[in-house]
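Here is one chain, start to finish.
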Amino acid sequence: MNNFLVDSTVWIEFFKSGENSIQAELQELILQENNIFICPNIYQEVLQGVAD
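Its structure:
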């Protein structure tokens, strides 16, 4: 099991509709039960990038 700090740009792409390689890669990391981390700055940027 590995640790990953995932940047806001990756999360914003992950939550967009449709499929792309970034979504697939992050989903694979999650399914492999890796430790996924965010920091407060990333959390804020993700919230600002989400329309709904």
